[in-house]
Amino acid sequence: MFRSEYADVSPVELPIHDAVLGRAAEFGDQPALIDGTDGTTLTYEQLDRFHRRLAAALADTGVRKGDVLALHSPNTIAFPAAFYAATRAGASVTTVHPLATPEEFAKQLRDSAARWIVTVSPLLDSARRAAELAGGIREILVCDSAPGHRSLIDMLGSTAPEPHIDLDPAEDIAALPYSSGTTGTPKGVMLTHRQIATNLAQLEPAITTGPGDRILAVLPFFHIYGLTALMNAPLRKGATVVVLPRFDLETFLAAIETHRITGLYVAPPIVLALAKHPAVARYDLSSLTYVISAAAPLDATLARACSQRLRLPPIGQAYGMTELSPGTHVVPLDRLHDAPAGTVGRLIAGTEMRIVSLDDPDKDLGTGESGEILIRGPQIMKGYLGRPDATAQLIDTDGWLHTGDVGHVDEDGWLFVVDRVKELIKYKGFQVAPAELEAQLLTHPGIADAAVIGAYNEDGNEIPHAFVVRQPTADGLDENEIMLYVAERVAPYKRIRQVTFIDTVPRAASGKILRRELRELP
User: Fold this and answer.
1) Protease among the record's keywords (predicted)?
2) Strand 290-293 vs strand 316-320: parallel, antiparallel, or unpaired?
3) Which CATH number fits domain 425-519: 3.30.300.30, 3.40.50.720, 3.40.50.300, 3.40.630.30?
4) Separation of alpha carbons 215 and 301, rounded Å
5) pLDDT-derived band of residue 511, with 50, 70 and 90 as boundaries?
6) Would the pTM count as exceeding 0.85?
7) pLDDT tens digits along 303-313
8) Cβ(78)–Cβ(152) below 8 Å
9) Which of 157, 181, 293, 312 is least crowded, fewest Cβ atoms below 10 Å from its Cβ?
10) Residues 93 and 487: beta-carbon distance below 8 Å
């Protein structure tokens, strides 16, 4: 068993809004959130006051403890206020991908039993359609303004009393992001107030931040990585978060230069751009002191090229998953120069790990031996919403979460993730379940059978690669038709990016697709 070198942390027995904004009065007029496109700024005092007024308005509207509110928005400076207002009113927040199709959105609304939606006007058509399909939605609110919908801006004027909800941090759900876990279709991950807040405390000794630090939030808040690293963690410590709604390289670089960003939390595609794109040379990025990459594996050579170009310490990595609130490993900021190339870091405080044999899961492996990574700690999710069997498959009776990732630990405690047991595809950090795409492919009348695996393109990104068996009558079916067919039915990040036609999908006697054989095809 491997244990963290850091001292254990006590569970944080606070609602997430108090765990994050408990020092807002101390930080006062310091900027908490800055819109990276137009410069609009919210101070800590304003963020604290605004989220309390919104909580009062939501409670006055009928939001009650146990309700689920769907937050459907790109990154904006309103997102944190909406999130903390909902939790202060007693609701759980299920975060929704802004690019989800109405059908995908409706599935999440139904599964989570959401009663409220908070969105932005450009996404209203999708939200309305999803609400129609799902049923049970009481009201759609907007962060900005739109005819026929109440705006959070107007709700700030509420004179209703601030709600004081009796929350149990250990049991009550703060966030309900959706994850495919190690396999299968998306499931609601129940993360309690205590689990999320404690994970922030666990990360703090390794990743320190505070007033004067400026963090650029370009990765989405709806994703647990962004929610933790770019929203909760910096706001808890008095740093300034500069918010961008999406990644556009020129806008991203300009924001670093204009706002004198000190720290970046990114995914590998952004590291690639920083390492290779000619536009980088046109901007002053000298304010940066570190870059941390997570959400997908980062090639060591690429990481080195990026740090050398930016004249920075080596790029650090972090590791975790939604079901772990999400963090378990990170390269500490004071160890960036010491960390071996390619490591995803060391165990954070209060976390234990085992590496077990792929052939014999009861056999623990030692230093340098590769096996499945198991994690135990206070950050492990409460479970999958309404899916006790899936929860039991992931978390064993001794409390160990089986990550589905394969890795090894060196003699100094650095973890290296080398492969995945699980079949999940990570396209630019977003989870894509092969089973979901296979189900879509099989609805095409010209497709007899199909299988999907992850394959790496020339940029080093993992992409969905479909292997398709044509129906005997569909000789004319081509790659473009298949990719377009799927693209019309799924969110953009789930699109099929490559198609290979084969005579038969290799399967085991049980019917399970033999994906390894597909990967070995020429």
Assistant:
1) no
2) parallel
3) 3.30.300.30
4) 25
5) low
6) yes
7) 999 999 999 99
8) yes
9) 157
10) no
